[in-house]
């Protein structure tokens, strides 16, 4: 929720209000989560490589989908971690640990698939540059 609306308990009344709250969440995750910043840096690096290698339209779609999946899974991982901390009041819980591990596992799976897709797209293009 936006700073001025910290005590809001009912649904958002306007699209603008919903957007402001959502944007606040995006800003918070970038400020507080090191891994989100790392994913974003890698996204910029990948975009620069893609631009430099002149990817085709379909290749761009895959790259954008991979970047989006990474940012979304990292966001859900953060949500899971915060919910576990809220429910357990930041005390150790075996179930809480499993939940956090599974959420982190989702990020790892997305990263592995994104890496494989990146290799499938970039390796042939780099190979062609090297042999020509």
UniProtKB/TrEMBL annotation:
Q: Where are the transmembrane segments?
A: 38-54, 101-127
Protein localization: Cell membrane
Tell me where on the tree of life, at the top rank, the source sits: Bacteria
Pfam families according to UniProt: DAGK_prokar
Q: Tell me the keywords, alphabetical order.
A: ATP-binding, Cell membrane, Kinase, Lipid biosynthesis, Lipid metabolism, Membrane, Nucleotide-binding, Phospholipid biosynthesis, Phospholipid metabolism, Transferase, Transmembrane, Transmembrane helix
Topology in the membrane? Multi-pass membrane protein
Gene3D superfamilies listed in its UniProt record: 1.10.287.3610
Which family, according to UniProt?
Belongs to the bacterial diacylglycerol kinase family.
- The name under which this protein is listed is UDP kinase
**Species:** Pediococcus parvulus
Q: What is the lineage of its organism?
A: Bacteria, Bacillati, Bacillota, Bacilli, Lactobacillales
């Amino acid at each position: 929720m936006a700073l001025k609306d910290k005590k809001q308990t009912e649904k958002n009344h306007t699209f603008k209000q919903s957007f402001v709250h959502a944007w606040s969440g995006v800003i918070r995750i970038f400020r507080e989560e090191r891994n989100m910043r790392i994913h974003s840096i890698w996204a910029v690096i990948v975009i620069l490589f893609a631009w430099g290698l002149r990817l085709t339209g379909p290749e761009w779609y895959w790259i954008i989908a991979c970047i989006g999946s990474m940012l979304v899974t990292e966001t859900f991982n953060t949500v899971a971690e915060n919910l576990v901390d809220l429910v357990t009041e930041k005390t150790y819980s075996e179930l809480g640990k499993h939940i956090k591990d599974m959420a982190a596992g989702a990020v790892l799976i997305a990263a592995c698939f994104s890496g494989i897709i990146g290799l499938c797209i970039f390796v042939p293009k780099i190979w062609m540059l090297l042999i020509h």
